[in-house]
Design a protein that fits this description.
Length: about 350
């Protein structure tokens, strides 16, 4: 870097990239501007004094997530994240767990996905991982950290298996929520109904409107076949980083970024108030739970030698080698089951027994 007179390094969307480049920045005494969303450790400013984080505060997003879960009175959630190559989740899960515990919400299951690029058959792996969630009671999913490729497949499989339908709720935070700025309509449709928490930025400043016009013109000329030319938070952060770095270099040999941040940047979180359009045209708050699927059916004991066979009995069909369970009590059970299954499935299995 000394040979080509590097003044600053800007980029790094993942924490493992940031940590590696930050060490290089320390040695060369060159500022490193990172876009990675991470829970900042207390000693990080001392360990990497040349590292500047441009991403929004993850702890604030998780506090916002906890507030949403608490406001809808959901008691259990499932946390989902894609680990990096070091097996880390950037510290997000611990913060989420502590935050939810403070309001009496339990994490029923933690779905840890390996790096997408490390999978030989990502389609099959994601399908099996999503299918496992059918046996869980909670239907509130909190997505902490996923790559774009993993996000597309996870939500597509979840939609096909009915995990983002009625009485289910998905909450996604940055950077997953910001990916929506650059995906096509088919991906958006599979994520319909998810609540996204993302960084808010003003769109009426003069500098923003000027940059937006330039971005659209250049993007459409280089990618004429793309469906959308809207810029997302990553483009804005890159612009702010380069602008702030350039201005700082012009003013002084030492990079100084004011506490208030660049003009266009904002760490405010915008949450829609009022009516939420839940999946399945649901007008009420989703229950956030469901009975487990037939992976764990409810077992019901039926007397093998009943006193009154008009109420219930066990018949053996030698031709088909199957048992049947006729009787008045069985008929009443099925009528009640039909009513219950309008709200949630109740898989069951009759088990004959000859004891008392």
């Amino acid at each position: 870097m000394e040979k080509i007179n590097v003044q600053a390094l800007v980029g790094m969307e993942t924490w493992e990239e940031t940590a590696l480049v930050a060490d290089i920045g320390n040695q060369a005494q060159v500022p490193i501007v990172s876009f990675a969303s991470v829970v900042i450790p207390p000693l990080m400013p001392r360990q990497w004094p040349f590292l500047v984080q441009m991403a929004s505060n993850v702890k604030e997003q998780i506090r916002c997530t906890t507030a949403i879960v608490r406001s809808f009175d959901w008691q259990k959630v499932i946390a989902i994240f894609e680990a990096d190559y070091y097996g880390s989740d950037s510290g997000m899960f611990v913060v989420l767990s502590d935050s939810l515990q403070d309001v009496g919400v339990a994490i029923e299951y933690r779905l840890v996905l390996p790096p997408f690029s490390s999978l030989d058959d990502p389609e099959s792996f994601v399908t099996e991982a999503v299918a496992e969630q059918l046996s869980k009671e909670s239907r509130v999913f909190i997505v902490l950290q996923l790559s774009l490729s993993m996000s597309v497949r996870l939500f597509r499989e979840s939609k096909q298996m009915g995990l983002n339908g009625r009485d289910s709720a998905w909450i996604i935070i940055d950077p997953v929520a910001s990916f929506l700025d650059s995906v096509n309509t088919s991906v958006i449709s599979s994520m319909a109904g998810a609540l996204g928490i993302k960084t808010y930025f003003t769109e009426d400043s003069r500098s923003f409107l000027h940059f937006k016009h330039q971005f659209r013109r250049i993007f459409q000329s280089e990618y004429p076949d793309e469906d959308t030319s809207e810029m997302g938070i990553y483009a804005l952060r890159a612009y702010d980083s380069i602008t702030a770095t350039t201005n700082a270099i012009k003013r002084t040999e030492r990079l100084v970024i004011e506490e208030s941040g660049p003009e266009n940047r904002s760490d405010n979180k915008e949450i829609l108030s009022g009516l939420v359009n839940w999946p399945g045209d649901l007008k009420r708050v989703p229950k956030g739970w469901a009975m487990p699927t037939d992976a764990k059916p409810m077992k019901i004991g039926v007397p093998g030698i009943p006193f009154f066979q008009t109420f219930v009995k066990v018949d053996w069909n030698g031709g088909s080698n199957e048992l049947s369970f006729p009787g008045f009590c069985i008929d009443v059970f099925y009528e009640v089951l039909n009513i219950l299954e309008r709200s949630y499935p109740l898989p069951n299995e009759f088990i004959p027994y000859n004891g008392t």
